[in-house]
Amino acid sequence: MDSTPPDQTEAAAQQTPHALKVRGLMLAALIALGMSALKDLFLPAFFHFDSGGAAAAGPYIIFGLGVAIALAFLVGYPLWTFADNNGLSTPIHAAILGAALGALIGLAHAAFFRDALTTEARTFTIFSVLWTILAGAICGFAARTVARTPKQKARE
């Protein structure tokens, strides 16, 4: 006789396998790095800021990849486990959670650098926070989409 309550067995059945989470989080890290590089290296030209452009791209990508992967696993993996445990298993749920996490990261980044900003840079910081929210939503959606099992695809 099984003494496990039915809702716990359902939650365990919806758990995303570790290998699929790793694949999704690696994709999310690459997307986050790409969007961050686009925002920091190339979009400032539209706002007439000097960002260093192509000369900074190599070190930015090498250093940024380590930061993106670390953040994806240190923050994304526990958030994904929380989502799985609470039945938030669709790509839309992941996009919403990713946007919320992007908002937290963007606001933390803006707060950390707020004293050194000029008026023009503060305007760009507002755009940067919004961009980070968008990046979080895209990363969450993409990570969850590539990690869906055939059973999850059939249910949706």
Describe the structure.
Helices cover 76% and strands 0% of the residues. The chain contains six helices and no strands. Helix 3 packs across helix 4 and helix 4 packs antiparallel against helix 5. The radius of gyration is 18 Å and the shape is elongated.
The percent range for helix content is over 70%
Order of helices and strands: HHHHHH
What structural class results from the helix and strand content? mainly alpha
Q: Would you tell me the overall average pLDDT?
A: 81
Net shape: elongated
Strand content: under 5%
Total beta-strand segments? 0
**What's the end-to-end separation, in Å?**
31 Å
Radius of gyration, in Å, reads: 18 Å
**Can you count the helices?**
6
Short description:
With 156 residues, the chain is mainly α. Helix content is 76%, strand content 0%. It is built from six helices and no strands.
List its salient traits.
about 75% helix, mainly alpha, elongated, about 160 residues, 6 helices
Write the layout of secondary structure elements.
Elements: H1 6-13, H2 18-42, H3 57-85, H4 91-112, H5 119-146, H6 150-155
Helix pairs in contact: 2-3, 2-5, 3-4, 4-5
